[in-house]
Amino acid sequence: EVQLVESGGGLVHPGGSLRLSCAASGFNFRTYHMHWVRQAAGKGLEWVSAIGSADDTYYSGSVKGRFTISRENAKNSLYLQMNSLRDGDTAVYYCARGHTSTYSLDYWGQGTLVTVSS
Amino acid sequence: DIQLTQSPSSLSASVGDRVTITCRASQSISSYLNWYQQKPGKAPKLLLYGTSSLQSGVPSRFSGSGSGTDFTLTIASLQPEDFATYFCQQSYTNLRYTFGQGTKLEIK
């Protein structure tokens, strides 16, 4: 059974840093591209970042230069290092698996809440 | 960046109704369009991929069509469990995805 479990969310001050983790199981993690998607309270989904199976990385304009996505295949883990956090980064952050042939996001974690506030 | 615009933003309908939600892309995305359903407090769930292919386990009352810039999600006969928010998402631009703003489907 495919499972994605996020952790690392919490309360952080503006300008601070946080590292999110996503533990994957039930599939051959190294062969899939992985994504982070966020959702502010009462708002829609916002794609944040992705990493391919060859460690190629992609970012939305709103986080480029501040967030870094990475993966550790030996640990079946995905990470999101978030620096210079702003109020607007407050959201539930989901990790999601990218299907290798359909390019859809076919499995999602339950999300972890990041709150940026002074 | 490719923008996706969904319409309507919200919709009221009754059990048994046929409902259509539209997603328009700012440029052609071929058939690289996926649909998700999200219920309050839950993660999104993949419904359709590649415009019209049903994800495993999704009821056949859900269907999708379109190509290029205009796409639709149709629910043939609304069931009580279908009241949720629906999002379209494009996967045309390599791994740099975007989502529509969502359509909230409410009970009339």
Short description:
The complex is a heterodimer of chains A (118) and B (108). Chain A is mostly beta strands and 118 residues long.
Structure explained in plain terms:
Chain A has about 120 residues and is an all-beta fold. Chain A has strands at about 5, 10, 20-25, 35-40, 45-50, 55-60, 65-70, 75-80, 90-100, 105-110, 110-115. In chain A, strands 2, 4, 5, 6, 9, 10 and 11 form a 7-stranded mixed sheet that branches. A 4-stranded antiparallel sheet of chain A has the order 1-3-8-7, with no helix packed on it. With about 110 residues, chain B is an all-beta fold. Chain B is about 0% helix and about 50% strand. In chain B, the strands form 2 sheets. In chain B, strands 2, 4, 5, 6, 9, 10 and 11 form a 7-stranded mixed sheet that branches. The mean pLDDT of chain B is about 95. Classes of the chains: A mainly beta (about 120), B mainly beta (about 110). The interface of A and B includes residues 47, 56, 94 and 103 of A.
Give the SSE layout.
The complex is a heterodimer of chains A (118) and B (108).
Chain A: E1 3-7, E2 10-12, E3 18-25, E4 33-39, E5 46-51, E6 57-59, E7 67-72, E8 77-82, E9 91-98, E10 105-108, E11 112-116
Parallel strand pairs in A: 2-11
Antiparallel strand pairs in A: 1-3, 3-8, 4-5, 4-9, 5-6, 7-8, 9-10, 9-11
Chain B: E1 4-7, E2 10-13, E3 19-25, E4 33-38, E5 45-49, E6 53-54, E7 62-67, E8 70-75, E9 85-90, E10 98-99, E11 103-107
Parallel strand pairs in B: 2-11
Antiparallel strand pairs in B: 1-3, 3-8, 4-5, 4-9, 5-6, 7-8, 9-10, 9-11
